[in-house]
UniProtKB/TrEMBL annotation:
Pfam families membership: PTPS (PF01242)
Broad enzyme group: lyase
Organism: Amycolatopsis antarctica
Family: Belongs to the PTPS family. QueD subfamily.
SUPFAM superfamilies named among the record's database cross-references: Tetrahydrobiopterin biosynthesis enzymes-like
Name assigned to this protein: 6-carboxy-5,6,7,8-tetrahydropterin synthase
Gene3D superfamilies with a match to the protein in the record: 6-pyruvoyl tetrahydropterin synthase/QueD (3.30.479.10)
Pathway connected to this protein: Purine metabolism; 7-cyano-7-deazaguanine biosynthesis
Enzyme Commission no: 4.1.2.50
Length: 229
C-alpha cells in the first residue's frame, strides 16, 4: 500500500490530507445482467482523507491506512462489507468509519473523503455538508476536462449516475466543434461545454452537473452551477 501526506495552513487552521492506495476486486451484482461491472473486476483504489487538525502533534491519519490495508487490500470487497460496493457507498462507509474511529480518538474533524477506483473517476463525501458527488476526467489532446455531478441521494444500486453514462461527453469532446473550442480555450469554453452537457446528457441521466473544469497547459477554466440554473 502506498501512502502520501500533505499539510496546509490557512487562517491559523491546519488541514492534513493523506492518501492511501489498496488493490481490491468487486462485483456490482445489483447492476443489470450484461453490465460489465457486474462481473468480478479489480481496481487500484486511492483513498484520500482531509481533516482539520486541532492539535498538530496528533494529526496522523495513518490509522485509516491501517484499516484499509487490513480490511480491503487484496480482497473481494463484497465479502468485506454489507452494502453494494460502489465508490459512492464506499466513500460514505469510510467517512462513517473515520467519524466513529478517528474523530472520537483524536482532536481532528473530517473535511472530505475521496475514493478513486481509477485515475479518472472518484466519489467525494463532504465532511461539512454530507453531500456526495462524483467526478470524471476526460483526457483530450488539449488537456483534461473534469465533470463533477451531484444528485438528491443515490439510486437503488448506490450510484449518483453510472460513470459509463458520461461517455457521450467524451465522444463530444473529440468532435470537431468541441475540439476547436478546446484548442482556442477562450473564456467561454467551460460555459459552452457545461451548456452542451446540460442540454444533451443531463436529461438522460439522474445526476446533475455541479461543475466543469478545463485544465489545458497554461489555460484553466472553471464553470460552477449557480442556484438558478
Ligand atoms: N457512479 C458510479 N459508476 C460506476 C461505478 C461506481 O462505483 N460509481 N463503478 C463502476 C465499475 O466499478 C467500473 O469498473 C468502472 O467503470 P468505468 O468508469 O467505466 O471504468 P473503465 O475503466 O471500465 O472505463 P473504460 O472507459 O470503459 O475503460 C462503473 N460505474
Amino acid at each position: 500500500m502506498k501512502a502520501t501526506k500533505e499539510k496546509c495552513v490557512a487562517d491559523g487552521q491546519v488541514t492534513v490530507a493523506q492518501s492511501f492506495g489498496f488493490s481490491a476486486s468487486h462485483e456490482l451484482r445489483q447492476l443489470p445482467a450484461g453490465h460489465k461491472c457486474r462481473r468480478n473486476h479489480g481496481h487500484n483504489y486511492t483513498v484520500t482523507a482531509s481533516a482539520l487538525v486541532h492539535d498538530e502533534a496528533r494529526g496522523d491519519l495513518s490509522p485509516l491506512g491501517d484499516y484499509l490495508a487490513a480490511t480491503f487490500d487484496h480482497r473481494l470487497l463484497n465479502e468485506q462489507v454489507t452494502f453494494h460496493p460502489t465508490s459512492e457507498l464506499l466513500v460514505v462507509h469510510l467517512a462513517e468509519w473515520f467519524r466513529d474511529n478517528m474523530e472520537s480518538a483524536m482532536p481532528i474533524t473530517l473535511v472530505e473523503m475521496v475514493v478513486s477506483e481509477t485515475a479518472t473517476t472518484s466519489a467525494r463525501y463532504d465532511g461539512v455538508t454530507g453531500e456526495i458527488t462524483i467526478s470524471k476526467t476526460f483526457t483530450t489532446s488539449h488537456g483534461g476536462v473534469t465533470l463533477v455531478l451531484g444528485a438528491d441521494g443515490l439510486d437503488e444500486v448506490g450510484f449518483i449516475t453510472d460513470f459509463g453514462d458520461l461517455k457521450p461527453f467524451g465522444a463530444y469532446l473529440q468532435a470537431p466543434d468541441a475540439d476547436a473550442g478546446l484548442r482556442a480555450a477562450g473564456p467561454a469554453l467551460v460555459a459552452d461545454l457545461a451548456g452542451w452537457f446540460v442540454d444533451n446528457i443531463e436529461p438522460k441521466i439522474r445526476g446533475r452537473l455541479v461543475s466543469v473544469r478545463v485544465g489545458s497547459g497554461a489555460t484553466t477554466g472553471l464553470w460552477e452551477r449557480g442556484d438558478a440554473s
